[in-house]
Amino acid sequence: MASSPFLNEVRTSIRVRGMSIRTEKTYIYWIRSFILYNNCRHPSEMGAAEVVRFLGYLATKRNVAVNTQRIALNALAYLYNQFLKQPLGDLEFNYASKPQRLPEVLMAAEVASIIKEMTGRDKLIFSLLYGSGLRITECLRLRVKDIDFSRGSITVRDGKGAKDRVTIFSPTLYESTRNVISNALELQVRDNKESIGPSIPGVLAKKYPSAYRQPAWMYLFPSSSISRHPVTGVLCRHHLHDSVPRKALKKAVVAAKLSNKRVSCHTFRHSFATELLRNGRDIRTVQELLGHSDVATTQIYTHVLGQHFAGLGFV
């Protein structure tokens, strides 16, 4: 199914529209799941009724969260509205009602105890997650050009929802970041001798064929191995896979004796937001730093603190 001609056509159309690899994989996953759920019937033979039944199945049988259901709907909306040109119209169904669980957060001292158990690259990665509110994928995709030491800021490119944003960059991380950049650029020089460099988005790679030689495009956290670009097939060095810092985190949590808590990479982003609100930053500012489209998403952190934050930036 994964390599079927139909799914390959959908995949190609997604790439032509310049969507991210992550979006491509997500859409293909849900489209494939939809087809399998309907006994491998071709999507062109189905429509809104089958989509509604599938979304209902996700809510009642697979007990998915409402956000997961929305992602599945986005994938199927793309399939029908954009690819097949068979608009679904208004769908009448109820979103999943699974209660939203408050995010797990860490106190500043707990964050410090975990990071203390790390060294070098891993220590910087989790310091950035906590100090800048980054998602793990956003952090690992950082390039040299995204770091602004003079302004104390980090630019997150093509974040969730294909949005760019600017967030804070702590001066306490300048030295370790410069060291990581220096090591990455040395690796880039060695790679360039073999006509290899950091992976470049397909469209930009065609427009700027020598971009992989420019320091600005080098990843801060490059992979230890060479691979082929998933779109262009060109040999390149991608960024570090997220499984590497996740393993480092697991060890650090045990060493810090915090195994009783549900600590993930995303916990550091949650803790960043909560700490800002605890220290009096207005919720609109926190919303912008996190890149949330709706302030309601950010407001969940006020519930974590158990306070209402009346009058703090809601105007």
Automatic annotation (TrEMBL):
InterPro entries, per database record: DNA_brk_join_enz, Integrase-like_cat_sf, Integrase_catalytic, Integrase_integron-type, Integrase_recombinase_N, Integrase_SAM-like_N, Tyrosine_recombinase_XerCD
The answer, when asked if DNA-binding is one of the entry's keywords, is yes
Can you supply a Gene Ontology BP term from the record?
DNA integration
DNA-binding as a keyword of this entry, yes or no, is yes
The cross-references to PROSITE patterns, in alphabetical order and at most eight, read: TYR_RECOMBINASE
GO terms (molecular function) for this protein are: DNA binding
Which residue range or ranges hold the Tyr recombinase domain? 101-314
- UniProt keywords, alphabetically: DNA integration, DNA recombination, DNA-binding
Q: Which PANTHER family match?
A: PHAGE INTEGRASE-RELATED, PROPHAGE INTEGRASE INTD-RELATED
Q: Which family does it belong to?
A: Belongs to the 'phage' integrase family.
Q: Which NCBIfam families match?
A: integrase_gron
Q: What is this protein called?
A: Integron integrase
